[in-house]
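Let's sit down with a protein and look at its sequence and fold side by side. Once you have written the record down, we can walk along the chain together.
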Amino acid sequence: MTAPKLSWSDLAGARVGVWGLGREGHANLRKLLALGVEPVLVDDAPAGPAGAADFRRPVLATAAGGLAALERCDVVVKTPGLSRYRPEVARLTARGIPVAGGLGLWLAEADLRRVLCVTGTKGKSTTSSVAGHLITGLGRRCMVGGNIGAVPYDPDNAGDFDYWVIEVSSYQATDLPCSPPVVAVTSLHPDHLDWHGGAERAEQYYRDKLSACSQPGAELTVANGDSDLLREHAALLGPRVEWVGERDDPDADWMGPLGLPGRHNRRNALIARRCLVALGVPGADDDARLRAAAAGYRPLPSRLTPVGAVGGVTFVDDSLSTNVLPTLAALDAFPGRRVALIVGGHDRGIDYAPLAAGVVAREAPSYVLTLPDSGPRIRAAIQAAAEQGTDQGTGRTGAFAGVTDCPGLENAVAVAFRWARPDGIVLLSPAAPSFGRFRDYRDRAEAFARAVRGLPQP
């Protein structure tokens, strides 16, 4: 997929359709209004909160006149959640109508020397927030935006910034017509395959995700050197790659004030620092200044966030871990600790064998509680891995305590608490999205915290 090389300025005076009215769609509308453009508004489900009631403008349903209205436009600006592989997109492009994304329109006219794009299956939010915090701590004005935080072109977010740190999802990457000189890639693992053409399209997902590294303007990709999958796809990482691993700079102590647990977060911080040096941010190459800049960092919510302790058991919210990779990293953040792991959610058909292998091979005691809808598949994968380890006489399953399907999160918390006493960890790290059971990962995190508060005090 190739995004059109258009900028926001090019849309002044054009007939523009805004397709999709979520958070970024509303920003698209505000930007067009600021340009004097009154766009056509289209959404798949306009009756709900995605409708533009705030703007008192009619919103057409895609399937009920909306697509026909978009076909009469000069340009369509779509929200990232609408897949470029939808037949409607092919229909629009076949008619010669460019389908652009708001972030791509912004990058096309931004000063790319002062923009850092951060992508990756997981870890990109933490890396982006660390990079932005360090830039601010070093005395420069920075916006952290994109998939996290502010929409950089939204008139409501106007300001005078020295740098922009932009988190780029795989959805947004397909909308980018160019790359800044420096791009970071934190990890790679199959994800969002339904958006990228179907469950069998892992390679398409990799190409889409990593396309942010190799569009015109790309010079350097700072990449996770501990990822075998990324190294296998090095050809997609642009003209030059610098690999960063969790064991790099073993004597560096500047990141201590960040307070981030886990080896994966150490690597995320090292990636952020390497990018800042490549951008030429003053002070980024000075450990003492960087340590001072790291002070006051507040970790992002639902990323290995402690939510309380009951009877000696610590409860940790990692609700944003919606894939196998971050869940394994979350387990790795508690070496030697007894962990009851709560997993499961919306079933996208991903392979849970790597998660099962990691759980069963863990040296410290581990007990798994699974949730609908993917819970039974996860349980089956873990049981198969445990049986295989026993059959092969590896001796690697001795600490594995078992796996149990639970009907819901509250029940899972209660069962996990009983097993984890007196001094263990109950870790919500679902390796699955929250769709269908909760509004989003925040709603799931709040339900977890409520369940913890509802436990009987010993």
